[in-house]
Amino acid sequence: MATFPEYIAQNEERDGVRFSWNVWPSSRLEATRMVVPVAALFTPLKERPDLPPIQYEPVLCSRATCRAVLNPLCQVDYRAKLWACNFCYQRNQFPPSYAGISEVNQPAELLPQFSTIEYVVQRGPQMPLVFLYVVDTCMEDEDLQALKESLQMSLSLLPPTALVGLITFGRMVQVHELGCEGISKSYVFRGTKDLNAKQLQEMLGLTKPSATQGRGPQTAQQPLSNRFLQPVQKIDMNLTDLLGELQRDPWPVTQGKRPLRSLGVAMSIAVGLLECTFPNTGARIMTFIGGPATQGPGMVVGDELKTPIRSWHDIEKDNAKFMKKATKHYESLANRASTNGHIIDIYACALDQTGLLEMKCCANYTGGYMVMADSFNTSLFKQTFQRVFTKDVQGSFKMAFAATLEVKTSREIKVSGAIGPCVSLNAKGPCVSENEIGTGGTCQWKICGLDPSTTLALYFEVVNQHNAPIPQGGRGAIQFVTQYQHSSGQRRIRVTTTARNWADAQTQIQSIAASFDQEAAAILMARLAVYRAETEEGPDVLRWLDRQLIRLVRGPGLKPGSGLRGSETDFMFHLRRSPFLQVFNNSPDESSYYRHQFNRQDLTQALIMIQPVLYAYSFNGPPEPVLLDSSSILPDRILLMDTFFQILIYHGETVAQWRKAGYQDMPEYENFKHLLQAPVDDAQELLHTRFPMPRYIDTEHGGSQVRAQRNTNNIHIDLRTDTLTCIFSLIYVLMFCQYIHFR
Ligand SMILES: *[C@@H]1O[C@H](CO)[C@@H](O)[C@H](O)[C@H]1NC(C)=O
Ligand SMILES: *[C@@H]1O[C@H](CO)[C@@H](O)[C@H](O)[C@H]1NC(C)=O
Ligand SMILES: *[C@@H]1O[C@H](CO)[C@@H](O)[C@H](O)[C@H]1NC(C)=O
Ligand SMILES: [Zn+2]
């Protein structure tokens, strides 16, 4: 019998699921006393290289309100060729193709090791992938040059049949026609007036697929394309040239003014173009911006440089003139894009804010990426962007498109809602709880863009009444059904079926307490707190979190003393002071950015964000984790700190002196050379795997002045002061700023 930690690890490995509780309290009343609800972190596309997809389609329960997928938990009568649904107890006939099954000849979906299984949908057309580049041209030559090179590089990473398009914008918006023979022709739009889909369709001469193809589904042989979206293989040379020739926006910018940047209309045209041509087909709108929108719908600041972009202070004073209107504009675009299954990515590279606060829902509702860097000529941007196109061993992109997630539950439990990069599909049904948490009132969500680390938090409600005991040995079951467009163009369905034991909290409290997954619970509560921070006033969220903390410390409805251990409450205190909840000293854009990342990353990454990890390297043995505390700083140590957003190496006083004296270059001090190298190697490994790429900071004790030097790869900071707290405050002033409380 595995211990709970082993059990939790195995389940995460196999199913991509971590529950807050792994034994569930068997009545609603007991469950509500537990503070932390029954909830799960679910990673729909968790990498499973050992799981080849099977080439047939799932067998569904015949009950119209259920439609659960046949799974290893179903009772099967091999003689009568019947199976009983473990969700609604309906008895179902196997389809004719299962005539040959028996105890010794079971289909894969009945084997316990296939609690997660992936099916390839055989019907329907192969979908093309569509990539639409939306490029700001109001930027310095250095940035534009670097961006152009990155875009050209990305073309070489796209599959030859992928369709690409290009929209550029400055004061005007240009939609580039890619089909014309040798002439670069574009349609020019004013940046001050929004266009609806119908107007755009007329102006660009687009035809709806249904109009050209008649009724009925699109045919596979005839991938739809138009002059604006062409297969890479046909136009990559010409598009490479076109990108190479892109110039800075030619409209003059007078002294003291910002360039006029029509971002809102450019994004609207991008959304409209795909809406008219490829509804419900996987597509990425990749937006590259070098500054804030300064005119037209979606503008977030005026063009007078002397009027700065809104701050938290302005927002609190209700003095952020453009915020509400801009947010509404981007929200409506985000809703349209998600309805059509299209992703919107935002790459914002500028020293000042660009309006991520207003635009965040574009990325969030559509599963898009949000990347924030100082410049396009940084490895943070370049490598992050390149990593978007990472491929698996079969040569397919790791990104997946136009997904839906459906949750099915057994009778004693219902789903309250989801928090993550998704939108509701408003699917009512017997599994839906009346008590909403996050995006609730539905058992289906749309996730336009998914990758192997995209993780949703799902909250459940035990509905079994106190006086309705669950039979001994009864198990509660949850099925996750994720349908998505694989980057090969196939539709696939991944099904994960999980079950957990019920226990009576009166008599079996120990087994419930032992099943508590503290890490999962902390992240699930943190997502809830961040959700509240997004939707409610700051102080209320902190008060709410404090109340939860007190209840957690006392023990979540369990016996006294069975509450979280010290380290986990520390963790909640870290969260309380983290940038995800605190907004002072982070700009509104930064808060939006951190929260966006926190809301989509998997458990391991999310833990690092809330509680940075610190490793010490010394001659006294292998690297070891140490406390995030100034006592960890010693002269003969090197520290490696990982905050998810930054990787920092700090050399203690003695180590710094030795390094300055060049001991690492002397053959007799080879072990010192290795000591210096070890954290660098470990940092490189983190830099290579993380998305988005973190900032790399190399610092040391001493130095005559504090200076921060930006260069392409990293930031060098020499510190005057000698405590670790100081490094932390520097980092936190840069981005985290833990030390100031809200109000
Ligand atoms: C980008 O930065 C690097 C390093 O600072 C510099 O050498 C290069 O010239 C820059 N690129 C452009 C296009 O200016
Ligand atoms: C690409 O450019 C070349 C040279 O300008 C031209 O001859 C060719 O027709 C163009 N191809 C397409 C598909 O536009
Ligand atoms: C993103 O949207 C989802 C669903 O609408 C929501 O649960 C989540 O809190 C939002 N996150 C952020 C950071 O805005
Ligand atoms: Zn059923």
UniProtKB/TrEMBL annotation:
Domain annotation Sec23/Sec24 beta-sandwich: ranges: 400-503
Keyword set includes Transport: yes
Keywords: Cytoplasm, Cytoplasmic vesicle, Endoplasmic reticulum, ER-Golgi transport, Membrane, Metal-binding, Protein transport, Transport, Zinc
Superkingdom as given in the UniProt entry: Eukaryota
Keyword Membrane: yes
Domain Gelsolin-like: 623-705
Domain Sec23/Sec24 helical: 571-607
Domain Sec23/Sec24 trunk: 126-389
A GO cellular component annotation in the UniProt record: endoplasmic reticulum membrane
Biological process annotations from GO: COPII-coated vesicle cargo loading; intracellular protein transport
Topology term for the membrane: Peripheral membrane protein
Signal peptide: none
Start and end residues of each Zinc finger Sec23/Sec24-type domain: 58-98
Gene Ontology molecular function terms on file: GTPase activator activity; zinc ion binding
Subcellular location: Cytoplasmic vesicle, COPII-coated vesicle membrane; Endoplasmic reticulum membrane; Cytoplasm, Cytosol
Summary of the function given for this chain in its UniProt record: Component of the coat protein complex II (COPII) which promotes the formation of transport vesicles from the endoplasmic reticulum (ER). The coat has two main functions, the physical deformation of the endoplasmic reticulum membrane into vesicles and the selection of cargo molecules.
Family: Belongs to the SEC23/SEC24 family. SEC23 subfamily.
Protein name, per record: Protein transport protein SEC23
Source species taxonomy: Eukaryota, Metazoa, Chordata, Craniata, Vertebrata
